[in-house]
């Protein structure tokens, strides 16, 4: 094995993880930049606040794939270059870190739930499924996406260690879980204060706010025009 190959694979995974799909999808679909509204996070949950479910779904899938694909490629083809389990784990961590601190948007990324989920599924589909089921149960019972993400992040390393054993993958899963918990610290504060938004709660979306602003602007312009016409009529 060439000694630089693990570093190259890890760097490429970080660059893939740095792709800000929330920003890219929003721009391609003519939506507002997700960094300018809501939580200001470039992630699927914040894109959903635009009122465009398709854009949010595409962001979610692409964010998950950028965690899944690099790990899958190294797992499938890395043996040809003697890239072993440690490199596979580092590649998953690098893709996740790329989402948290993306090179392409000044290192200000999202919370990384979808990218972490994609990496876990690529590490071990059973681990990914167990973590996803945990998320779904908590989300169904309590209706908080953030709480579901926090609980899933806590359980993921325990699933790995208790069922599949310790080692480098377990260490990486633990690091990812700790980073997820850290990124959700503000959500923990809102949960404790009782101000966290629940799944399915209706609110004023960015799109509707934009429409209201546009209507207000046009109404103001029409009023000004009428005032000017009246002034000309009197002169």
Topology at a glance:
Elements: H1 5-17, H2 21-28, H3 44-48, H4 53-77, H5 85-100, H6 113-123, H7 125-142, H8 145-164, H9 168-183, H10 185-193, H11 206-234
Helix pairs in contact: 1-4, 1-5, 2-4, 4-5, 4-6, 5-6, 5-9, 6-7, 6-9, 7-8, 8-9
What does this molecule look like?
By secondary structure, the chain is mostly helical. The chain is built from 11 helices and no strands. The protein has helices spanning 5-17, 21-28, 44-48, 53-77, 85-100, 113-123, 125-142, 145-164, 168-183, 185-193, 206-234. It starts with a helix and ends with a helix.
Key terms:
72% helix; 11 helices; mainly alpha; globular; 235 residues
- Sum up the overall morphology in one term: globular
- N-to-C order of helices and strands: HHHHHHHHHHH
Task: Enumerate how many helices there are, as a single number.
Answer: 11
Tell me the radius of gyration. 22 Å
Distance between the termini: 89 Å
Strand content: under 5%
Brief rundown of the structure:
The chain is mostly helical.
């Amino acid at each position: 094995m060439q000694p630089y190959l693990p570093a190259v694979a890890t760097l490429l995974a970080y660059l893939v993880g740095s792709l800000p799909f929330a920003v890219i999808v929003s721009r391609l679909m003519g939506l507002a930049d997700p960094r300018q509204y809501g939580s200001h996070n470039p992630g699927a949950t914040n894109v959903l606040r635009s009122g465009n479910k398709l854009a949010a779904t595409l962001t979610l899938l692409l964010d998950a794939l950028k965690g899944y694909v690099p790990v899958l490629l190294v797992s499938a083809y890395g043996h040809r270059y003697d890239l072993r389990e440690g490199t596979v784990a580092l590649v998953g961590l690098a893709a996740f870190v790329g989402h948290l601190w993306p090179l392409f948007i000044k290192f200000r990324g999202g919370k990384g739930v979808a990218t972490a989920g994609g990496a876990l599924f690529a590490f071990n589909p059973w681990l990914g499924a167990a973590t996803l089921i945990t998320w779904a149960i908590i989300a169904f019972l309590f209706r908080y996406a953030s709480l579901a993400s926090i609980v899933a992040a806590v359980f993921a390393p325990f699933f790995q260690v208790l069922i599949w054993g310790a080692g480098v993958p377990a260490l990486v899963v633990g690091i990812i879980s700790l980073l997820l918990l850290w990124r959700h610290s503000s959500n923990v504060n809102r949960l404790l204060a009782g101000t966290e938004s629940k799944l399915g709660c209706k609110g004023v979306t960015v799109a509707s706010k934009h429409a209201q602003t546009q209507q207000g602007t046009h109404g103001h312009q029409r009023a000004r025009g009428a005032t000017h016409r009246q002034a000309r009529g009197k002169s």
